[in-house]
Protein 1
Amino acid sequence: MPGGLGACLEAVKNEVNEAKDWLIDLDAAIGDGDLGLTMARGFTAIADEYQQSPQADVGRALVRAGMTFNRVAPSTMGTLMATALLRGGKALAGKENPSNEDIVQALEAAIGGIGERGKSQVGDKTILDVLQPAVETLKRELADGKDLPQAWSTALTAAEKGFEQTANMVSKVGRASWFGEKSVGKHDAGAGLGLVLWRAIQKHFEAGRES
Amino acid sequence: MPGGLGACLEAVKNEVNEAKDWLIDLDAAIGDGDLGLTMARGFTAIADEYQQSPQADVGRALVRAGMTFNRVAPSTMGTLMATALLRGGKALAGKENPSNEDIVQALEAAIGGIGERGKSQVGDKTILDVLQPAVETLKRELADGKDLPQAWSTALTAAEKGFEQTANMVSKVGRASWFGEKSVGKHDAGAGLGLVLWRAIQKHFEAGRES
Amino acid sequence: MKKLINQPEAFVDEMLEGLLLAHGCSLRSVRSDNRALIRADSPRAGKVGIVTGGGSGHLPVFLGYVGEGLADGVAVGGVFQSPGAEQILSATQGVNGGAGVLYLFGNYQGDVLNFEMAGELAEMEDIPTRTVLVSDDVASAPPEEWQKRRGVAGLFFAYKIAGAKAESMASLEEVEAVAKKVVANTRSMGVALTPCTVPEVGRPSFSIGDDEMEIGMGIHGEPGISRTKLRPADEVAAEITQRIVSDLPFKGGDEVAVLVNGLGSTCLEELYIMFRRVAKELEDRDISIYRTYVGEYATSLEMAGCSVTLLKLDGELKELLDAPAHSPFFEQIGR
Amino acid sequence: MKKLINQPEAFVDEMLEGLLLAHGCSLRSVRSDNRALIRADSPRAGKVGIVTGGGSGHLPVFLGYVGEGLADGVAVGGVFQSPGAEQILSATQGVNGGAGVLYLFGNYQGDVLNFEMAGELAEMEDIPTRTVLVSDDVASAPPEEWQKRRGVAGLFFAYKIAGAKAESMASLEEVEAVAKKVVANTRSMGVALTPCTVPEVGRPSFSIGDDEMEIGMGIHGEPGISRTKLRPADEVAAEITQRIVSDLPFKGGDEVAVLVNGLGSTCLEELYIMFRRVAKELEDRDISIYRTYVGEYATSLEMAGCSVTLLKLDGELKELLDAPAHSPFFEQIGR
Ligand SMILES: Nc1ncnc2c1ncn2[C@@H]1O[C@H](COP(=O)(O)OP(=O)(O)O)[C@@H](O)[C@H]1O
Ligand SMILES: Nc1ncnc2c1ncn2[C@@H]1O[C@H](COP(=O)(O)OP(=O)(O)O)[C@@H](O)[C@H]1O
Ligand SMILES: [Mg+2]
Ligand SMILES: [Mg+2]
Ligand SMILES: [Mg+2]
Ligand SMILES: [Mg+2]
């Protein structure tokens, strides 16, 4: 990745902070409106922590980030992000320059962790509805021989589609599920976060390519 | 008195009820605003009680009224009115047709009771600043040979003057005293009540004279 | 303020009905008048009875402090209104165990007048009474006139200590003396952020800007000593503590009990934030805290704000403060 | 809503500082992290530890129920935010007396996820844990899905009874079993009149008309089941009782414990007016009240409103409910 993990975390941090109010509004509609705050706090903390003491082992770095994320943002999504970082980190243990295959495996482990921890699946109107199709597309595109930035860019379209589809779904889990049918017509906030994350890295790749 | 004690209590009840909002406003300015409510309640209760079971012995009737007044309106003024009724009643014990002299004595006992119970005196910015000069005037006019209605009417002027003067005084007792110097410029609510009571009986005499 | 009530006029009586349904084992009414309540085990032969009373709207004050090691009887007035002399007399009769009765209540004129009337009536029945007025609100009169001050949350310390003394079967004179000692050593000051609404009145008791607070305001909305913009809790706690400490004055080396009391809608979390700073202010002055109470001990319906009370302790007061106490509203197991 | 606070971000930590200053004899922090608190006498060898936790802003929930005959440890989150797994683990380690630890808390996903993470970490340290979720809020899911419901004031009964069981040195399985029994027999419903304001957010958690109320609203402002004009307390109490009774269902001849709980700014007087009608409704259905609690047991900052909780009792539950309990926020001397 251009600039390594540190630059990548920095890119995510900036994008999430920019999307803060948007995420708050999405979560406020059928939740408690904290998502923008907790995610800004979490992604800022892990980026800053890495900046202060970088770690060559990407796996280890992600595990540490997961623990930190949970400490500073122990909300639902904070805990799911922590779980994702821990699982992804475990999958990358010992790697300093993960291959594309490693990355796909780590992403699969991460979203597997979210589903397991959250006892949720695609269709429940969550972040999974963005991340699952995005990772599937990424994997297929890479298998088709695309390079990582290209594949990531194509997967962004899948992520966007996934996000749009959450508006048609009934919330099955978490706070939003209490709204039942009333949740239809509103996008899921966590899905919004998934999109922000995916787009952040896509932009980061793009910037890397241009520079 | 025209129509006896019952008609007199009825006249007071009506006048106090009419003055209710005015008394509330006066008390609200440098007190808690309940004076109109408590006095309407108290004077209504004793008039209605007398109506239901009249009593020839004016003294006894007033003592009973005092107990009732305290039960339905145990505020500062309610308790002072109860004390006044008890003392006045005691002074008239056994009388069915009190003389003018009896009445003056009863009134003196009543305002003496207020001063004792309230540990207050003329100049403290209270009901006494109306009742004391009124009773003094009444006594002097009667001694001068005026009849009761005439004397009462002249005393009303003293009551009115007393009421006006309370606006220049600093509150020395009760809730209003917490306002200290800030009470200057405002009339005392209890003095307002004193005026209402005196005027009620004056009107009652007038009506009696006309009929 | 929105309320869960029925007819406003029924507020006090329905509250009392509910209360007796809930706490009928601890409290009972005298001659079926719910506005005169006494401990279920009253009268206790040879024990000084403590009777208190005042307006409704201040729970747990007043009736919440009727219990073991506390007061014995209470006369309940309308909201922010004195109870009648008749009810005070009923409570007096109900708790009279032959050792006399102490009238212990806050210094408000309506209450004073009615307790006086009741005391005269009780005397006619050969029940000796004494009166101790609680007048702890520093904001309501200068130090040299402290006995003219209003009674606020300091009532709690008076009940706790006089109640413990009476429970020890002390004489009327002894109970009166220790109650006077508490009052002389207790100082309080409050801050109000919002008014409250008396149900029958239906509108707020006073008006205050959305960004204002008033230090020294009384529990019925009586005027305070300074209205300012809303300030941080630390500043408010520091100012209140300073005013209280310099009033008695409390001095370095003193041992005190502290009560941080919520007026109604201010939440417990905020009270602890206030206490945090009060404790620091006391520490800075070398005044040590012997015992702390934080919570709603004397409220004003749903008024927002809090008060701070300090009681200077000596050996006797410490022992009595530590004694167990038990009512439906206040339990203390002991030190 | 006006608040007595300093920096909003410091709200929880300053509250905890104040609390530990006030109650340092009863509570202590684990490894100087005030967000992981345990009974001062923890760990007690051979006793099952009970750890709870959740967001701040609900005092006395959660940390107010750490004490004798109650819970042993608590992890404290931000306002309306779950605590982190790390703090839950700290509390778990702090109370572990070798007999295992019961996680007992309200059914909110953020909390569930973090307790799950903590449980996995505790397992790695050979501390066996069990989890019982309190899910008493009738308004939040249909009867057949009662285990998906949110946890509200019913938490109190769970602490009281599981705590008494643990105090009797019962095994982890036994404590878990009785906790499950409480939860299965507890039902609550609330009504909200005003929203509350999370300090860091700075604006009300939801909007509601000046003349409206919402039955079934959750303690963080989660949507309820009916928003109507403000109705008399009697009507509200009758409706809530009916909904709760028909849910379990509670039946004629049942014995219950009742909790009428204030959400924050609703005053005690109003809670007794509500209880008065709840008691009547139960009497009409031949359901008898064994024990009553009225007061603020689980709040939502300064939200106005209240909740009613019923617990169906049997011999075992009655005995455990009557056991003494003692914390800085709750004292019960026994029956
Ligand atoms: N069980 C779950 N599994 C996966 N994602 C979930 C689950 N529950 C909630 N989410 C996601 O989390 C988002 C809300 O996160 P957050 O605001 O942290 O929740 P809360 O404020 O309720 O703790 C939802 O929009 C949804 O995408
Ligand atoms: N000590 C006193 N002696 C005589 N009159 C008094 C005394 N204190 C108050 N008053 C009178 O009572 C009036 C207020 O009565 P009320 O509204 O019943 O008082 P509160 O509401 O404080 O109980 C005052 O305006 C004053 O005239
Ligand atoms: Mg959220
Ligand atoms: Mg949240
Ligand atoms: Mg008045
Ligand atoms: Mg009054």
Protein 2
Amino acid sequence: MKFAIVVHGAPYSSQSSLSALHFARAALASGHEIYRVFFYHDGVLNGTALAAPPQDEIDIPSAWQALAREHTLDLVVCIASSLRRGLLDETEADRYEKPAANLAPGFVISGLGQLIDGALNADRTITFCA
Amino acid sequence: MKFAIVVHGAPYSSQSSLSALHFARAALASGHEIYRVFFYHDGVLNGTALAAPPQDEIDIPSAWQALAREHTLDLVVCIASSLRRGLLDETEADRYEKPAANLAPGFVISGLGQLIDGALNADRTITFCA
Amino acid sequence: MKRILFIQRHGPHGSLFGQETLDAILMGSAFASCSVLLLEDGIYQVLKGQDAGQLESRDYSVTYGALRDYGVETIYVSARHLAARGLATEDLLVETVPLDDAGVTGLLHEHDVILGA
Amino acid sequence: MKRILFIQRHGPHGSLFGQETLDAILMGSAFASCSVLLLEDGIYQVLKGQDAGQLESRDYSVTYGALRDYGVETIYVSARHLAARGLATEDLLVETVPLDDAGVTGLLHEHDVILGA
Amino acid sequence: MLHTVNKSPFAGSALDNCLAFLAGGDEIVLLEDGVVAATLDIIDRCEAPIYAIEADVKARGLSARLRSTVKLIGYDEFVNLCTMHNSIRSWS
Amino acid sequence: MLHTVNKSPFAGSALDNCLAFLAGGDEIVLLEDGVVAATLDIIDRCEAPIYAIEADVKARGLSARLRSTVKLIGYDEFVNLCTMHNSIRSWS
């Protein structure tokens, strides 16, 4: 079965991204497919390349990247949410003349169409709310 | 009178930073002093240099910077909160070997001691909760 | 074609959920059959007479009035949540269909996907 | 010297407020006279028997047990909020002083600064 | 003591706690989503003076629905209220 | 339909709404702070099957306080419940 996973919460600030990560791992371990993980609202902050959590705590952005490498996941952060919250890839950093980009490898910035596409094409859509 | 202002919410995501900004402007306009603005929890994201909000919306990080330039404000983001949330100055980016820094000019990263110092030395401490 | 229900349960301006969920509704209505359900303080999203100028914020409530033009089928509200706030459908700037609790339950089950905070 | 009251009203693990407020309490107790008030789900911060290993999260609740060593004077709880959760002070891993509503009101007024989410 | 409430009474216990722990001489400022309470009759039962931030009331279209016990204020009056009380508790 | 609840019943209306809008055949998964409800007698009144994520219950020290009507599950069983219902509503 194909899952679309929607994440609304920032890592650490809300448990939702950790729950989504555990859910995604379990779905993959059970042989299901993850059609897409869509990060919306504060959830886009899961895609930061600059988080430096304490060493005895899980590094949530890195855990998403590791899962994506292992299973070729489509990790999409919403562009409108990202721009307001200061999460930029190289293209957007150039476009808005900002001094740096901070989107982690493995994540892509895209539009809300990817949320709707996921909802329409996955067998199940589950949201992890902030 | 000297005010310490504590901000717990991320810009846009929560109205708390906008309220704090309005409060700070009104306090200064009434002839009061702002001893410090301390950004804690998600509030540290007020200090991002990378936000690119829609042109018809207020740019909250820039508004803090403008107020700080005009009144020489002490804008402090909590270091522990910042590290988990991916907000780094050049020093921290180097220390944690991260690819970029994203703290806006006008903000400084410092420890929780600055929160306590503000609470002890200001005449009034007001918190804007997320 | 799948039917999507968007639920809005946050008031305006206190957080970004209202504005960003509205963006998702607009996008959804371009690609799918969509309805909107306003619960709890989400009902305040469409209260008449909002003026956010003094807040330096955007009055995006007017966009709700255009949802029909974007193809959104119906905007539903919980009649119980409306009454608890001392409001009536006449106080809202869009035409809404009030539902009792059983009506909301039915609506949830009529849709294939439920989105919204 | 000013007296600081830290209020904790969020449960553990669902958000970072609990852990970060605890950090602020530790810092505060190094420089000032501090007390802690647990309200609402903040009481769950000090419930016995927490084990966050399966969550890949840190069991920071043990640090509450060390607050006295850091100089925190007293940890107060709302007796009403405790009872509403079916809990008693014996269920908590630190010694707490339960207060009725008037006691909480008095506590708020005894302190010069109130911090915490 | 000055109390602030920034959440809707329908969305949590901020107002409940504020009212439960109020002392004589205390005052209350409703701001952000907290101004929703200014339109409900529960607020009439409160004996403390209650203020609501005008910009927040207007932004939410609630101006015509205010209970008569609530006084609209600007941020300058909010600042002034802070100076008139020894401490401030923000309920959220 | 599968319902999830991730907030404490003391911190908002997530559980209230979930229970108010429940249909026959629906099931409920409590996760994150939502597992607090699994220790309260209000949950006994609910006729739908109720599950709680074990990792969340353990992390909060609530294992010994669960109501007998609540079944502990892992994330794998959570995934399986999702496959067995046509849609999922997350109450927050």
